[in-house]
Amino acid sequence: MATKPKLYYFNGRGRMETIRWLLATAGVEFEEAEYLETREQYEKLLQDGSLLFQQVPMVEIDEMKLVQTRAILNYIAGKHNLYGKDMKERALIDMYVEGTMDLNEMIMLYPFSSPEEKEKNFALMIQRATNRYFPVYEKVLKDHGQDFLVGNQLSRADVQVLESILMIEEYEHTALSEFPLLQAFKARISNLPTIKKFLQPGSQRRTEPDDRIVETVNKVLQL
Ligand SMILES: N[C@@H](CCC(=O)N[C@@H](CS)C(=O)NCC(=O)O)C(=O)O
């Protein structure tokens, strides 16, 4: 039996969360290495050569130690048929998920904002979500009238767009009010069995960031 992928990261979403989402969607059981809580744990990983660029996320999977979030996501998506059926579909998927990656970067960094910048960053994050990214996904669904964003079958684009929607809604619960097709999309994709399970309380999905995780990350990475 193949060993379960093992994830090396903090007890928080950050750059690892989309990896958790894709594995969970594919129905792949995975485990978390001891969450990074101290500088010593991180230095141990650095010293044993596990982190190619001295950064996490790192995932042990199929006898490899993979780093670089996009490389890890590409591997999982390719392996589990979440990456389209040909190069054209893949190009569309790549475009759509790069939008989510840009938005997620803002969401991920927002809790690390200085007190002076918090309000401005919050407004920008919600503005970008509702004026730049969500309209694109709404239009894609409207133009082709299908259930999924690309090729009428589930792909990582659906998963990653859903992930972003849910994170934005935690901050602004009316964020989808102008996007009826995305509301239906959210309900549909959230209801797929593996995703539904991942959205249940007690799953391996990590919770909203709080002061504790910000403090831990700052301490471990000496930011
Ligand atoms: N391009 C990398 C960036 C990874 C990254 O910046 N990771 C942070 C934690 S989320 C880190 O390890 N920072 C320590 C450092 O850069 O020295 C990726 O996408 O995985």
UniProtKB/TrEMBL annotation:
The protein's matches in Pfam families, at most eight in alphabetical order, are given as: GST_C_3, GST_N
Q: Which residues form the GST N-terminal domain?
A: 3-84
A GO BP annotation: glutathione metabolic process
Q: Indicate the enzyme's highest-level EC class.
A: transferase
Q: Which residues form the GST C-terminal domain?
A: 86-209
Which domain of life does this protein belong to? Eukaryota
Keywords of the record = Transferase
EC numbers on record: 2.5.1.18
MF terms from GO for this chain are: glutathione transferase activity
Q: Which family does it belong to?
A: Belongs to the GST superfamily. Alpha family.
Q: What protein name is recorded for this chain?
A: glutathione transferase
